[in-house]
Design a protein that fits this description.
The complex is a heterodimer of chains A (422) and B (393).
Chain A lengths: L1 E14 L2 E14 L3 E5 L6 H9 L6 E10 L2 E5 L2 H9 L4 H17 L8 H21 L6 H17 L1 H24 L1 E4 L13 H12 L4 H14 L16 H13 L5 E5 L7 H18 L2 E6 L2 H7 L2 E6 L2 E7 H6 L4 H8 L39 H5 L4 E5 L2 E4 L3 H5 L5
Parallel strand pairs in A: 3-8, 3-9, 6-7, 7-8
Antiparallel strand pairs in A: 1-2, 1-4, 4-5, 9-10, 10-12, 11-12
Helix pairs in contact in A: 2-5, 3-4, 4-5, 7-8, 8-9, 9-10
Chain B lengths: L6 E13 L4 H6 L4 E13 L3 E5 L6 H8 L7 E6 L2 E2 L5 H10 E4 L13 H11 L6 H14 L5 H5 L8 H13 L5 E5 L7 H18 L3 E5 L2 H7 L2 E6 L2 E7 H6 L4 H9 L48 E5 L2 E4 L18 E4 L6 E3 L4 E3 L5 E3 H7 L14
Parallel strand pairs in B: 3-8, 3-9, 6-7, 7-8
Antiparallel strand pairs in B: 1-2, 1-4, 4-5, 9-10, 10-12, 11-12, 13-14, 15-16
Helix pairs in contact in B: 4-5, 4-7, 5-7, 7-8
Classes of the chains: A alpha/beta (422), B alpha/beta (393).
Bound molecules: adenosine-5'-diphosphate (2 copies), iron/sulfur cluster (2 copies) and magnesium ion (2 copies).
Chain lengths: 422, 393
């Protein structure tokens, strides 16, 4: 059963010299109790994806497209005019616009009682007039492409600048914000990158977790203290450690305490950003073992973000491979490891040394990841891809479902999957 | 003994202590305390050989590397470089030794001066050591070094500043800088740890091809066992300042002798979802390098420990030809190997919580939970998603 649905998510940062297209059309889903690994090299948009889901984006970051639905509730999206405005800037705006409008219309026509996203529909309804106007323009055969673009731009301008639209947007933002802040604490918890170094050194670790509990749960101080002891048991920390200070904890113990804190409000989903990156390999193995045990015992869904594909292999059931703001491959981890349908994934695994089996010659991927304020045209991987053809420089590939629960973003996904292209 | 045939570096009983600055009274009445960074290590590096040094952070790898290029002065021991003990060199002799050895550091962002362009950075060692007759000759040497580091064409890179280079290119500049003096020995301290996977392989292959072409010996330091395996001819495993195991790479990785190496290898994640690791075979946490455990340094964490282990210090024993371990029972223990299939588990049973090992029959539910065959028989349906369970293997 789907718990988290991320649909064509686009999240950009405004910077002095323009825009960083940090997350640019990412689609995936996570089932209840499932663990997903989000893998990619640094700067490819993993943390930004997590921040968009938990609505913790820095002030210059904004969701400009797509939706995030958690447990049937819309918790993040761009409104239609904003999304349309972004689409109109793209070279391939017409097919994108049609797809966008079609998606919206489909959502709008779902009968309320059958929909799992009633909340999101309520807001979509407010925009339905706008969506239908746009649809009418798109279907007007008498207009040229340029004229369509002009008309749409005018609608976008009106919608984004009108007083009522602004007020509506602000109200929507506030509602989402409120809902999100509830959900964030009670249902989704995030372990930040480097969080284990974020304990305040002058307070006892136990007290810091008690404080967090008191702030977000309705309980007495004694109850909170009791709960902290339980949490320490859960993550394999000695109960006597609650009165220890952060500097008395080793790296691994601090990471356990952070995991304990993330479990405090019985979340349904934990997003952990590089949870083992700063740890030595033996400590990493123990933390991964702990994560596996928690999955088994508590049935919590997890999203583990890491640059290390082998860490994901240890704990996850599904995997998403990110590159330059896009999800290049997504789906069942065994299927992707055994039979990848994507040149970037293949490149990444071929560059990875292992202690298993024979010593294999590693093959580097030439060049380096792009600056996301000026991503390459067409497929973002084409300057480094050994399979690249003319079409890759021109056209962005679409996501192809090569097998059940296995998607790849590549013009030649099927050929690569079936082994016709090697 | 000091200058064997084909040996470039012969390190004998190398020890490096860092005294701890203690309070006045403690130093009056208490014993002087030290950080035991490197303890009595012995190894050789042959011509054109890459010796890998691997271990967890704080085990003394960097200190050992810094001693070898004499950025640190050893507390005790001898280091014969080309037959000559350089452990105590000073002044002009030290400077001329330093011309022959180079170090590549972990962080290509920190090790390059942001105000120097590539040309200035790479030519600096030439200027410092007064190498090269003329400016043209120096230009030529810089261009060659950049080419060796695969920054081609060199003119395109010479006048760029660090911020105009990618992470991989910066590390190549750092490598070019070490190559420009044609060193006789290089210490590479975690040179790829900060780099992304797709770039890392290129830098590793570059170092391998340099060794191939110029037969420059390396000490390659890394905390990453997989990376060290890829790079090295032989591997030294360090723990708390000691080399606990030393041998040919494949022999150490595939058939380790020391209980610590076993633990280290069992913790290394492998990029294969079918292979979930067995539990790591080690107890407790790393002790402090200030109060070293008596007897075998590993005894507080060792699963094979016997009575003798906390009393007597083990010898560095050659249990197999060319393969040494610092353990009383080296060669006598049954140590798990990374390729031993039976240590791998498929996952954990949802019902009884015990592991499901490879080859066992089990049921996998649609919700991805696993059950032993016998547990599935008792349950009939998955308690989580209520679907009927079917045994697969
Ligand atoms: N606050 C910000 N302002 C501008 N750019 C940012 C900001 N945060 C991140 N970025 C950029 O967005 C891209 C994605 O970053 P991030 O999501 O942190 O990647 P990852 O977590 O995969 O390393 C990078 O190019 C990064 O430089
Ligand atoms: N200059 C120094 N002064 C005091 N202690 C040091 C110094 N350099 C290293 N150490 C200590 O020596 C030990 C070994 O450190 P290091 O050689 O950096 O290990 P590694 O490179 O394996 O991480 C550590 O306990 C470290 O804290
Ligand atoms: S679309 Fe083209 S460039 Fe992109 S990954 Fe596929 S083959 Fe490579
Ligand atoms: S000497 Fe004893 S304690 Fe040390 S590694 Fe060998 S068996 Fe373990
Ligand atoms: Mg990140
Ligand atoms: Mg170091």
């Amino acid at each position: 059963m789907v718990m988290l649905e991320v649909n064509n998510l686009k999240t950009y940062f405004r910077i002095l010299k323009g825009t960083v297209y940090a997350v640019d059309g990412v689609t995936f889903h996570l089932d209840r109790g499932e663990t997903m690994g989000l893998v990619g090299e640094s700067g490819c948009g993993k943390t930004t994806t997590a921040f968009a889901i938990t609505r913790l984006l820095p002030s210059n970051g904004e969701i400009v497209g797509g939706e995030i639905v958690f447990d049937g509730t819309l918790i993040g999206r761009a409104d239609f005019p904003t999304e349309l405005a972004e689409v109109l800037k793209e070279p391939l705006w017409l097919p994108e616009t049609r797809a966008l409008v079609e998606r919206k219309l489909k959502k709008l026509s779902v009968p309320e009682d059958e929909s799992s996203t009633i909340e999101s529909m309520r807001h979509l309804e407010q925009e339905s007039a706008c969506v239908e106007d746009v649809s009418a323009i798109l279907n007007d055969a008498s207009l040229s492409e340029e004229e369509i673009k002009g008309e749409l731009a005018a609608i976008v301008h009106d919608e984004l600048s009108s007083f009522f639209a602004k007020r509506r947007r602000r109200r929507f933002d506030r509602e989402v914000e409120e809902k999100m802040s509830d959900i964030r604490w009670s249902q989704i918890s995030m372990i930040f990158q480097g969080a284990m170094n974020a304990f305040n050194p002058v307070y006892k670790v136990g007290d810091q977790i008690v404080e967090a509990l008191l702030e977000h749960e309705d309980m007495t101080k004694d109850e909170a203290k009791e709960r902290v002891l339980e949490l320490f048991d859960m993550v394999g920390l000695d109960r006597t450690r609650v009165s220890g200070y952060p500097h008395e904890f080793s790296g691994g113990m601090r990471q356990r305490a952070i995991i304990a804190m993330s479990l405090a409000c019985n979340p349904q989903l934990i997003i952990a950003d590089e949870p083992t990156t700063a740890l030595d390999v033996i400590m990493q193995d123990r933390i991964l073992g702990e994560i596996r045990r928690l999955q088994r015992e508590l049935h919590i869904a997890m999203m583990i973000i890491t640059h290390d594909i082998s860490v994901v292999a240890e704990v996850a059931e599904t995997i998403g491979i990110m590159y330059a703001g896009k999800l290049f491959e997504f789906g069942d981890i065994v299927s992707i490891f055994e039979q990848s349908a994507n040149p970037y994934t293949i490149g990444l695994t071929g560059a990875f040394p292992s202690i298993k089996g024979e010593r294999k010659k590693l093959i580097a991927i030439p060049g380096s990841p792009p600056d996301l304020s000026e991503p390459p045209h067409g497929c973002r991987f084409h300057p480094r891809c050994k399979f690249a053809q003319e079409i890759c420089r021109r056209e962005e590939p679409a996501s192809v479902e090569v097998a059940e629960n296995h998607w790849s973003l590549c013009h030649f996904a099927r050929e690569i999957y079936s082994g016709k292209l090697t | 003994m000091e200058s064997e045939e084909g040996v470039v570096y012969n390190v004998v009983n190398l020890t490096k202590l860092f005294p701890i600055k203690s309070g006045f009274f403690a130093s009056l009445f208490g014993k002087e305390k030290n950080v035991h960074a490197v303890n009595d290590v012995n190894f050789t590096i042959g011509e054109g050989e890459i010796l890998g040094m691997v271990g967890e952070s704080g085990c003394g790898k960097t200190t050992c590397g810094r001693c070898l290029v004499r950025l640190e002065t050893p507390t005790e021991g001898h280091m014969y470089f080309g037959g000559k003990d350089i452990a105590g060199l000073k002044g002009r002799e030290l400077k001329s030794f330093r011309r022959d050895v180079q170090m590549v550091f972990q962080d290509p962002y920190e090790s390059l001066n942001p105000r120097f362009n590539v040309y200035t950075t790479v030519s600096e060692p030439l200027v410092v050591h007064g190498v090269g007759e003329s400016a043209e000759e120096r230009d030529d040497m810089v261009a060659k070094a950049l080419e060796y580091a695969e920054l081609k064409p060199p003119e395109e890179f010479m006048y760029r500043f660090p911020h105009e280079l990618s992470g991989g290119q910066r590390q190549r500049v750092a490598i070019a800088r070490t190559l420009v003096l044609r060193p006789r020995f290089i210490v590479a301290d975690e040179p790829v740890s900060m780099l992304d996977v797709s770039i890392r392989a290129g830098i590793m292959n570059l170092m391998l091809s340099l060794r191939e072409r110029y037969k420059i010996p390396f000490l390659f330091i890394s905390h990453d066992v997989s990376v060290t395996r890829y790079m090295s001819h032989r591997i030294a495993v360090m723990y708390l300042g000691y080399i606990v195991e030393l041998g040919d790479t494949e022999s150490v990785i595939k058939d380790p002798l020391h209980p610590y190496t076993e633990a280290l290898l069992s913790a290394v994640p492998v990029p294969d979802p079918a292979m979930k690791h067995g539990r790591v075979k080690i107890k407790g946490d790393l002790p402090s390098p200030i109060d070293m455990p008596p007897g075998c340094v590993f005894h507080p964490r060792c699963l094979y420990r016997k009575d003798i282990c906390d009393k007597e210090t083990p010898q560095f024993k050659e249990a197999r030809p060319g393969h040494y371990a610092l353990c009383h029972f080296a060669g006598e223990l049954t140590i798990q190997r990374p390729d031993d299939e039976e240590i791998f588990e498929v996952g954990g049973c949802e019902y009884c919580k015990a592991t499901i090992k490879k080859g066992m029959s089990y049921a996998k539910c649609d919700c991805n939970k696993l059950y032993h065959e016998s547990c599935a028989g008792q349950l009939d349906e998955c308690p989580i998603c209520k679907k009927k369970l079917q045994v697969e293997e």
